[in-house]
Recover the amino acids of this structure.
């Protein structure tokens, strides 16, 4: 009987057949990581020397936050039940604003915009 690496050729072929069967029999459909849809049509609706307002299209609860570019401060996540929000008590400077949809704990991709608050 022929051997390869100390195993019989029959044993190696059987092992290979089982591996192929497992890979075919137990393949799973790969689902997208996140099927929660992000908000759309983000629009700045107002601005003062210390606040900025946005609205967007979307359903369900949303998560908004900002990053102050001068020092990298990131606000806590803010949960919004509607489709508009006013960030207030902002100091002068550049900001990056983030908006996402919260689908029962699964968060969509964020849509992002930058703006400047002139104090």
């Amino acid at each position: 009987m022929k051997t390869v690496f100390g195993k019989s050729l029959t044993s190696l072929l059987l092992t290979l057949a089982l591996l192929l069967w497992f890979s075919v029999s137990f393949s799973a459909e790969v689902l997208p990581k996140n099927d929660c849809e992000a908000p759309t049509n983000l629009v700045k609706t107002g601005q003062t020397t210390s606040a900025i307002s946005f609205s967007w299209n979307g359903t369900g609860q949303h998560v908004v936050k900002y990053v102050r570019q001068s020092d990298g401060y990131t606000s806590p996540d803010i949960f919004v039940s509607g489709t508009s929000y006013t960030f207030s008590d902002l100091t002068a400077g550049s900001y990056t604003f983030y908006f996402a949809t919260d689908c029962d704990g699964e968060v969509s991709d964020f849509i992002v915009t930058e703006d400047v608050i002139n104090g």
